[in-house]
Structure formats: C-alpha cells, structure tokens
C-alpha cells in the first residue's frame, strides 16, 4: 500500500476498524516523510495492555516517534475530552502529526469540536456503575438518546453522568460545541474500508498471535487489580482471559469469545465510520 502523493506539510488522520492495518500505514508514512505518530485509540492509552490492544511494539516505536500510547494508569478513566486536551499541544509541535486509531469519537472531537463538559464526580460515577443498562437508558432524556447507540453501555452511562453532574442534557452540551481544533479541510483524512471476511480472518489470526506473544501473562500480571467497572478492564480479550485464569472458561472458549467480541466491535466501527466520515478518503487494503 503506497500513498506517495500525500502532502508532506499537512496532518494525516488514519481511521478504521481494528486489525485493518492502520498502524502499519502510519509507520510507513512517518518513516518515508517524517512526522510523529499519535494514538487515537481508547484502549491503547492504557499502560497495562500492550499485547492485548495491539499497541506498537518497542521496535516499531524506535523506528518513528509515538505519542499518547500506554501513558494512562489502568485505574484512571479517560475520555475524548481528555484525549483532545492532550493532543492539542502536539498539533503545534515541530513534527507533522500522523493521528491513527479506531476511536471515532476522538476524530470527531478533533475535526468537529467537542463540548467542554465538567468531569464526573466519583460519587456519581460509582452510582452509574451500579445501575443496570435499562435503568441508565430510562434516566437519560429522549433527545440525547436519539443520538446515541443505546446498545453501547459506555455511551449511555456517559450521557447519564453528564446529566446527573451538570443538570443539563448531553444533547444541550453538544449543541454548544466550540469550533474544531483541526477542521477536515486542513488535513489528509484517510479511513480504512476493509472487506468483512478479510477483516474477520485477520482478527482471528491476530488474537492467536497475541496469545503466542504473551497476552495471557499480561492479563495474569493484572489479575489482582482486575475490576470490570474500569474502562481499561473492558478492553476486548481482558474479561475473556480473566475468566479463563479464574477457571470459568477453557482457553479455547476464551479465545473464541474474544474473537467474536472483536468481530462485533469491528462491525460497529465500520458502521460508525461509513455513517459519519463522509468526505474522508477510503483506503482499501491490499488483499
């Protein structure tokens, strides 16, 4: 895959579903034309998971500068607002940013703007963690719900927490969104459009490689700190391998469940990108 005509003086955004080859393209561009690779993946920010989240390897990090990878403690929460505040200073740095990841909300925050919502107090977060998914949905206003994937508990809980913290609906906060930090017209926006069957095969192979490379040991090292309410512990593969280590699943069953969960996640990502990333240049991987 070659992109020799990418302007060297413009930021590059590379989005796409998991396992589609985004990081390899980012590294290719950085090595050829220079730049700093900046993470835009919500799971890869956590220090505790390198193998399970397919973070760049140490060897890859030596080939080009990487930022915002593995810099957040596993016990900390992290949102699109956190990410945007951290990425803004990097946009003004001396090296051209190459922003790569699969978290669509990070890219929309960057290119469309994001409301400056106050942080959620610990008490409200704990209350929300203890509520059922249905209870959260029933507590969120209808206008906000209309713009959410209500199957995604994290999104619904976020809407509830904003409403409980501020007394304002999340939809109202979004209506007051400031101008974007990096408008789409000022960047090279690329989004991977990977065929489903090809991607599913890569997902299965990659999880097997994760197991071969020590994913089980990575989870075992965190077992005494595992808390399913923590965002870091919801990373795909973590609950499944924890269940295996606790004697609830065979390794083969854990592998199968993690692979299925990854395929389902990739499907949601593809749907999100196709619906919301109009104007991005599609990237069709070499098959």
TrEMBL record:
Pfam family, one: IPPT
Keywords in alphabetical order: ATP-binding, Magnesium, Nucleotide-binding, Transferase, tRNA processing
Gene3D superfamilies linked: 1.10.20.140, P-loop containing nucleotide triphosphate hydrolases
Keyword Transport tagged: no
Site keyed Interaction with substrate tRNA: positions: 103, 125
Cofactor: Mg(2+)
Binding positions (ATP): 16-23
Keyword flag Lyase: no
Catalytic activity: adenosine(37) in tRNA + dimethylallyl diphosphate = N(6)-dimethylallyladenosine(37) in tRNA + diphosphate
Family in the record: Belongs to the IPP transferase family.
Role according to the record: Catalyzes the transfer of a dimethylallyl group onto the adenine at position 37 in tRNAs that read codons beginning with uridine, leading to the formation of N6-(dimethylallyl)adenosine (i(6)A).
Full protein name: tRNA dimethylallyltransferase
Provenance organism: Sedimentitalea todarodis
Lineage, broadest ranks: Bacteria, Pseudomonadati, Pseudomonadota, Alphaproteobacteria, Rhodobacterales
Gene name per UniProt: miaA
